[in-house]
Every structure is written in structure tokens, then in C-alpha cells.
């Protein structure tokens, strides 16, 4: 965990704010929530955001971006943004795997940008956890 980039995130009204020793420089709106985050950790992991020409705005956040129709909504983006700056370890489970898998594809979080990026993590979880459970369940139902 790196305290250089961030130490925590908290919600105030409909805004998620990363508290940090370094000022946040990007405001991203997903559904009704706004996330103020560090631009460079997301740029280094997200091909989609990296391709955008983010122009500074006249605001306190530096750059602003609105992600329309974001797969998984604001909850998936919250997990991705926290994991991108290592606030919390990534916790994949049956409730969030599908939204995170879709969101990682949308953001183009591939291995080409970062080893162990989110596409490969969700793919591994689906392959080695979910499909194994489905196979075992199928095998057990054949025995019965």
C-alpha cells in the first residue's frame, strides 16, 4: 500500500473524495456520484482514459470527465479507483465480478498497460473460482 498517492476515500454527499498528501487533479462523474481522484494512476492503468485529451477546467479539480453508461455504475468505479491508487486491496467476489469485468473492458485495463491489470484479474477469478464451482456443482448433480 502506497501512502504517497492516497490514504483513504470517503463519501461526502454524492462525491467520493480521495484524501491524500497530494492534491487530486481529476473529477469523474459516474451516474449521480462524482469521484475526485489522482489522474496518473488511472491513466497508467486505463487505456480509455489515457486516450482522452483531458483538458484542465476552471474548477478546483483540474480536469473533469463524465462516464456515461458506465458498466457496473458508481460502485464498480469506486472499487476500480480505490484499487488503482492502492487504497484497499482488490476484493473480487460473486457479487462484483461481472460488473468489474465489464467495467475493466470499458476502461481498457489490459496487461499491455500494467501487469496484473483488472481484465486479467477478473478473468482469472472467473476461470479459477467461478467456473470451478460451476463444474463441481454440475458434476455433483450428475452423480445424484
Which CATH top level class fits? Answer: Alpha Beta
CATH topology name, in short, is: Potassium Channel Kv1.1, Chain A
- Indicate the structural class: alpha/beta
Question: Rough shape?
Answer: elongated
By DSSP (H or I, 4+ residues per run), the number of helices equals 5
Looking at this structure, what is the CATH superfamily?
Answer: Potassium Channel Kv1.1, Chain A
Sheet with the most strands: spatial strand order:
1-2-4-3-5
The percent range for strand residues is 15-25%
Annotation, overall tally of beta strands? 5
CATH architecture identity: 2-Layer Sandwich
* Separation of the first and last Cα atoms: 47 Å
* Cα-atom radius of gyration: 17 Å
Fraction of residues in H or I helices: 40-55%
Poorly predicted tracts of residues: 1-8
What's the structural domain tally?
1
- The helix/strand series, from N terminus to C terminus, equals EEEEHHEHHH
For the largest beta-sheet, the strand count, sense and barrel status come to: 5 strands, mixed
How are the SSEs placed, and which strands pair?
Blueprint: E1 8-12, E2 15-19, E3 26-30, E4 33-37, H1 39-45, H2 47-51, E5 63-67, H3 73-84, H4 97-106, H5 118-143
Parallel strand pairs: 2-4, 3-5
Antiparallel strand pairs: 1-2, 3-4
Helix pairs in contact: 3-4, 4-5
Pathway: Protein modification; protein ubiquitination
Protein name: BTB/POZ DOMAIN-CONTAINING PROTEIN DOT3
Organism: Salix viminalis
